[in-house]
Amino acid sequence: MRSNELVAHLLLRAGVAFSLLYPPYAALLDPVSWAAYFPAFVRALPIETTVLLHAFGVLEVVLALWLLSGWRIRFPAALTALLLVAIIAVNLNQFEVLFRDVSIAAMAIALALWPKSRNVDLTNNQDKL
Amino acid sequence: MNNSTAALWGIVLIIIVGVGGWYLLSRPNLATAPAETTSPGGETSTTTEPSAGMPIAPVTVTYTDQGFSPASVTIVEGQTVTWVNQSSKQMWVASAMHPTHAVYDGTSRTEHCAGGAPVSSAVFDQCSAGAANSSFSFTFTKAGEWKYHDHMDATKFGTIVVSGPETSVSVEAEVNAQ
Fold it and tell me: Is residue B73 part of a domain?
C-alpha cells in the first residue's frame, strides 16, 4: 500500500473509531442526555436504561478498537455501518443531530469495501499485496 | 467494478435514499399548514391567535406516555405555554436541539441551566426533571417556529409556532425594498 493510501486508511479508521469512542465517554459524564436517545421499544425492555446505555458503550468501544486494529476490518466496519443506519432509522426525529451519522456510515462502508489486497493493520503496516 | 461490488453500492444507495425519503416524507409541513399537523396520538394542532384587544390566554400542552398533545401549537408573541406532565415518568421540557438546547436563546444547557435552574426568564428550558403531575410554563417573546423535546426522552417532541409583529414588519420591509 502506498503511504498516502495507508494514511487515508488510517484516517478512515481513526475517524470512525472516534465517533464510536466519544459517545460512551460522554455517557459516563451525562448519562441522562444519552439515554434520552433510546427509542420506546428499548425503554420498554426490563433493564435499567443506564445499564443498557453503558452496555451499548462497551459494544462501541469493542468495535472502535477492532477498527483501529485493522484486523479483519470488513466485519467491524460493516457492523458499524449497520449500527449507524439502525440508529438513524429509529431516531428519524433527531435527524438534525444524527445527519452526520450518514457520513460516518459511508466511511464505515468505505472501509468494508476497501480492496482486500490493500488491507492493513496496526501490527503490520506492510502491504499485504 | 464487479457484480458484487455494484450490488453492494446498490444496497448502500437504496438505504440512503430510503432513509432520506422516509425522513422527508414523514416530516409535517409546519411552514405551510400548521393547522394540519398532528400529534403522535393523531390529534390536530391548536392555533390560538386572539383577536385584537383580547387578553392573551395561556395555552396548555399535555404530556402523556404517548408524547406531547397537541404536538404543534400556534401562539402569538408574549403568550405563555404551560406543559402539564400527565405521564407516568419525569418530564423536562427544553428547546431543540437535544442535548444542548441552544436553538431558542443561543446558549447551551450548561450555560443557561447553571445551578439546575434557568438563569433567566428568557431561557426555554425547564433545566430539571419534573415529576408526574408537575407543570412547566414559558412565555415566548420571540417569533419563529420553536421545536422542543423532553430531555429525559428525546423521542418525544413538539413545536411552538410564535407569530409576532416582527414577522409582518420584515415582510413589509421586503415588499418596500422591491
Answer: yes
